[in-house]
Automatic annotation (TrEMBL):
Biased composition (Polar residues): 34-57, 113-124
Region entry Disordered, spans: 34-65, 89-172, 286-309
Entry-linked Pfam families: Kelch_1, Kelch_KLHDC2_KLHL20_DRC7
Keyword Repeat listed: yes
Species of the source: Rhizopogon vesiculosus
Protein name per the record: Galactose oxidase
Gene3D superfamilies to which the protein is assigned, alphabetical: Kelch-type beta propeller
Top-rank lineage group of the source organism: Eukaryota
Amino acid sequence: MAQRGRHNLDLVATHSTTVSSLLFAPLDDDENDTMSSLSVQDDSHLRTAQPSGTGTHSPYLHPTHQATASTSTFNVGGQLAASAAMNTPTVGQTPVGTPTQASPSTPRAPASRKSSSLRHTSTAGPADSLSASIKRRPSSPSAKEGKYSSKTTPRVRATPRLPHSDDPPAPATAMYWSRAPVHGLLPMRSFRAHTVTLVDPVAWLFGGCDDKGCWRDVYCFDTETMHWSRPETLGDVPPPCRAHTATLVDRKIVIFGGGQGPVYYDSTYIFDTTTRSWFCPTFPHSQSSLQNPTSQPQNPQQGPVHPAPRRAHTAVLYNGKIYIFGGGNGLTALNDLWTLDVSRLDPTSQATMSYSHGSYGTHRSYGGSFGGSASGGLRWSLLETTGKAPAPRGYHTANLVGNVMIVVGGSDGRECFSDVWCLNLDNLSWTQVNLQISHRRLSHTSTQVGSYLFLVGGHDGGAYKEDVVLFNLVNLQYEPRTVKGKPPSARGYHVTLLADSRLFVFGGFNGHDVFDDVHILDLAGAAYLPQVMSFRVDV
């Protein structure tokens, strides 16, 4: 039996300032997408506008990264930043596997840290209009994107590196951490704020960013053989982005939102994992484009017909609809709830537009329906819920358990939340869970394993975490659980998924470095013996 033991790591946060100091914290760039980075002001604004008596150090940023430009999700201080509207690049304009600012010329050295080449200087002042701060369907802020250098040597590993450890023995039934023995065509970059979607045994990684910028390439990881590969893709490739959502619908991955730098997206992209092709449906953003110009609107008081640009939101699939909750639009945190009807998703058909007034409850909708069908295809709906709703937030998690969406943690840019909320998707009613023990978390992951949610890593408002916290879905309370082996270093903005009784952790960020590693948590008997086989969440 392999030798096993516990490995303690020092957490990477270098400050312990209270969360309230985040109101005056300097901004992030694409290297520092932490809780203190959730304001949208340009750092040139902050250097002139920041009160002299306030602290200039954030508990979420390394001191060497304090003065970099904003690529944030939330606006805490109240100033606006303008983002230029640009057309979405086509495959002919920008290669698929390119960053926004600089293409890597050599393989990334995992332990090294180079100064960022990604800088943004906003030309917008506080008096700029709101419309200048949110743009629809923009592309990369930079038009100087290039291919991988022809001199770049691909990172190919023919033989897996099996993990070795001098840790003391652990029981065979214990949950156990180890680093995945990956091989194949390794990613040419590290990744954080990316998405990884499991289709059969293959995990599809898209987007995210590293210390060079945001990316829009696709990698495949076989969870059975630990083999990396990079497929060629076709069609309307999305622009580079991070903090988006990816939802699996019948072997197709639906990407929504995200952004890069000061730019936020409201676009929807569909990736067919069978044909490896992208498709971008087009939605109107106003009722005037859907109605006869000579007719009057039936209800002039109707609200928006499309979600605002956002990132750091969540998405779950229920009854043929993707439920989008929260996030940030660059000006404020959000707590609105939208659905995208994907019950008849067919990106092979040409999209036609239709509009109808909502008839279910109190919601408004419009659609881009495929194949000319007005009743199916893609249709956005804004839902109104009952009960006290969660505070606006981003970098939270959302899991679908039966007919209930469970939201854990997150941040509004000022506070790291510890609350847990349940939304019944049948009657759209919110319920807050009364917790005996709570854990503050943002940028963590939450993965359902039977009757438990496994919360891995994240930030607790003071430091990045490396622990695993279990949330019991039967009594809706947290439980302690011992985990053996060598865990991943403390991090957030990673991705965790369940495959073959193992949790896989991809990448992440610890305030200093962006990771490209893959770790495995073997669940073993300790994870499954306490399980309740049949249960439901009653809220």
